[in-house]
Design a protein that fits this description.
The protein starts with 6 loop residues before the first strand and ends in a 7-residue tail after the last helix. Helix content is about 35%, strand content about 20%. It has a single domain, classed as Ribonucleoside hydrolase-like (Inosine-uridine Nucleoside N-ribohydrolase, Chain A). The strands form three sheets. The chain has an eight-stranded mixed beta sheet with strand order 3-2-1-4-5-6-12-9, with helices on both faces. It has a two-stranded antiparallel ribbon with strand order 7-8. By secondary structure, it is α/β, with parallel strands linked by helices. Bound molecules: beta-D-ribofuranose (BDR) and calcium ion (CA).
């Protein structure tokens, strides 16, 4: 049998229910070798999301240390999202306590170490504000070429979700996003254009719950909680943002992807944090981003269910 070619990845996020579901998915992908988990303030304070990340690592039996990242954006005050994710940042199912110490390295230093030591170029999957990744690029520009790609959940080419113009992850730290989008590193962007179409309906996560394994039950419980606020806003399904940044790497065939030059609005009375795409090439800039704009929702759900089925027989 041919050996699977492994792709080293770093999971950087602010869990967060959809980050957590994305990490469950990532942990089941045979091509991925998860080299590090790094946390960033966003959905909740850094302390809370780091505790959540360590509990998720314990749930998934991941034998890696979590590195704590930046506790605030590069230039602005932190915005958090307790309305979506609750007081803990991951309200809902009970999780196991952390079973590994926290890394002594900060997230950007952990990322730098992974980039230095990895034989192959590393993919960073960023599902929170881009603060850590920007800090890495600013403090270690010599390591830029060691990054294969940054897969981002962030932005929206047509709309925002936190303001009319800006999506939460980019709005929290626009200067970090600007640094990343101007870095020259290959970018794959799952913005609201696709993630608001990645709807998982209650009947879909009942398929996950019906798998009756301990991780699937937790995932279904996360959907139950995450959906409460979304439902109050009028959504009939859960906008499953962060898993798109994982799935589009391994199943690009189920997504619509377009290449655009994308820039970040840093000023703007109403539009700070907006991601602006040059649709018709008027700026003359070469595209800097592969933008994911649509998907086959049913296949997306099938792959999520399949991922959750891989924990059959697990003890937590
Ligand atoms: C993004 O914001 C957070 O609340 C989610 O975890 C996701 O990363 C969606 O705008
Ligand atoms: Ca997130």
């Amino acid at each position: 049998m041919n050996e699977i070619k492994k792709r080293p990845v770093i999971l950087d996020g602010d869990p967060g229910h959809d980050d957590a579901i994305g990490w469950v998915l990532a942990s089941t992908i045979p091509e991925f070798e998860i080299k590090a988990i790094t946390t960033v303030a966003g959905n909740q304070t850094l302390e809370k999301v780091t505790y959540n990340a360590r509990r998720i690592a314990a749930l998934l039996h991941l034998d890696i240390k979590v590195a704590k990242g930046r506790n605030r954006p590069l230039c602005s005050d932190l915005i958090i999202a307790p309305n979506f994710h609750g007081e803990t940042g991951l309200d809902g199912p009970i999780l196991p306590e952390p079973d590994h110490d926290l890394s002594e390295l900060s997230a950007p230093e952990m990322m730098a170490e992974v980039l230095r030591e990895s034989k192959d170029k590393v993919t960073i999957i960023s599902t929170g504000p881009l603060t850590n990744t920007a800090a890495l690029l600013l403090s270690h520009p010599e390591l830029k070429d060691r990054i294969e790609m940054i897969s981002i959940m962030g932005g929206g080419l047509r709309n925002g979700n936190w303001t009319s113009a800006a999506e939460f992850n980019i709005l929290v730290d626009p200067e970090a996003a600007y640094t990343v989008y101007h870095s020259g590193v290959p970018l794959l962007m799952c913005g609201l254009d696709v993630t608001e179409k990645a709807l998982v309906y209650p009947k879909d996560w009942e398929r996950i719950r019906a798998l009756h394994n301990p991780v699937a039950e937790v995932v279904a419980g996360w959907f139950d909680f995450f959906f409460i606020h979304l439902n109050s806003l009028g959504w009939s399904g859960a906008t499953t943002h962060d898993p798109c940044a994982v799935m589009s790497l391994v199943h690009p065939e189920i997504f619509d992807i377009k290449d655009y030059y994308v820039d970040i609005e840093l000023q703007g009375r109403y539009c700070r944090g907006a991601t602006i795409a040059d649709y018709n090439g008027r700026t003359g800039n070469t595209p800097n981003c592969r933008c994911v704009v649509g998907l086959d929702r049913e296949k997306f759900v099938d792959y999520l269910v399949e991922a959750c089925s891989k924990f059959e027989g697990w003890e937590v």
